[in-house]
Design brief:
326 residues; Rossmann fold; binds 5-S-methyl-1-O-phosphono-5-thio-D-ribulose; 37% helix; seven-stranded mixed beta sheet; 2 domains; Four Helix Bundle (Hemerythrin (Met), subunit A); 16 strands; globular; alpha/beta; four-stranded mixed beta sheet
């Protein structure tokens, strides 16, 4: 099922807030609509956010054929304010900016082509990540994953789920444990949906159960995606990732991060420099729009955390596997 559709004068996005119960598309006809869709999590996942933002820039240029450069610059500014953590967003916007100023006769077309290239390259990168990652797994592995780093979170195929998909095809992956991923439930709603549709056996667990499973010898590897990776290898990913990495270390289970090079931010050394998005505390205080905590209680909702490089066994990229220096 397509989760991003490009119609030239609109971007259609499968509404990930409503999966798995409803399959509904949101139609975005200008950059404001694209920015809203990113902010409100119609589309989410670092590489997918970057691709859709690039399409948003192309869309806005096309809407303003007399002043496409001005429109694209404005779109880049608007989209850059949507979500702060995912490096892929800024990487994609920088690529789109790189098209401006060059002597293209048809800037609108050039921007569209660049956005589609970013998308295509991401799918190719994911397939390569799947290939490299699968080589790290022993036959019949039971893999634990967190959040959703699947086709829905990327241009298609997925990073962590790309490794799992490929591993399953090769008989390397026997079973997947997906954490539900409170508060937005990307694990229950999206990862479980993607894997079930592919016939990959998946069991849903609450995050709190991860240590129990590991202590019982039920997990052979942890594989997660990333939103931003610094030059020393610190990894920002969905809140709860750090906890899983510490648990994996305690139980001598390999902890792999699967991400394309577009997720790397070589301008940062330490993970403490990564901007961490804080979302509305109501996402924590409520379930399905109904308040579950007593009135007067405050909520805190950091959307990501940082796993220090020391806890990462290896980073799987499209160019190969990065191991820590000896
Ligand atoms: O808040 P989200 O759903 O955008 O967070 C997504 C994640 O944390 C993913 O693990 C990450 O973006 C990698 S997706 C290939």
């Amino acid at each position: 099922m397509e989760h991003i559709l490009w119609e030239g004068n609109a971007v259609l996005l499968l509404d990930q807030r409503r999966l798995p119960s409803e399959v509904v598309y949101v139609r975005c006809e200008d950059v404001e609509a694209v920015a809203r869709a990113i902010e409100e999590m119609v589309i989410r996942g670092a590489p997918a956010i970057g691709i859709v933002a690039a399409l948003g820039v192309a869309l806005e240029a096309r809407r303003n054929p007399r002043r496409p450069e001005e429109a694209a610059l404005r779109a880049i500014e608007v989209l850059g304010r949507t979500r702060p953590t995912a490096r892929n967003l800024f990487w994609a916007l920088e690529r789109m900016k790189g098209i401006l100023g060059s002597p293209f006769r048809d800037l609108v077309k050039a921007l569209e082509e660049e956005a589609l290239r970013i998308w295509r390259e991401d799918v190719e990168a994911n397939r390569a990540i799947g290939l490299h990652g699968s080589e790290l797994l022993g036959p019949g592995s039971r893999v634990l994953t967190h959040c959703n780093a699947g086709a829905l979170a990327t241009g298609g195929y997925g990073t962590a789920l790309g490794v799992i998909r490929r591993g399953f095809e090769e008989g390397k992956v026997r079973h997947v444990y997906a954490t539900e991923t409170r508060p937005f439930l990307q694990g229950s709603r999206l990862t479980a949906w993607e894997l079930t549709r592919e016939g990959i056996p998946v069991t849903l667990i609450v995050e709190g159960a991860a240590g129990y499973l590991m202590s019982r010898g039920m997990v052979d590897a942890v594989i997660v995606g990333a939103d931003r990776i610094t030059s020393r290898g610190d990894v920002a990913n969905k809140i709860g990732t750090y906890t899983l990495a510490v648990l994996a270390r305690q139980h001598s289970i390999p902890f792999y991060v699967a991400a394309p090079l577009s997720t790397f931010d070589f301008s940062l050394l330490g993970g403490d420099q990564i901007p961490i998005e804080e979302r509305d505390p109501r996402e924590v205080l409520e379930v399905g729009g109904r308040r579950i905590a007593p009135e007067g209680v405050e909520g805190m909702n950091p959307a990501f955390d940082v796993t220090p490089a020391e806890f990462v066994t290896a980073i799987i990229t499209e160019k190969g596997v990065l191991w820590p220096p000896l």
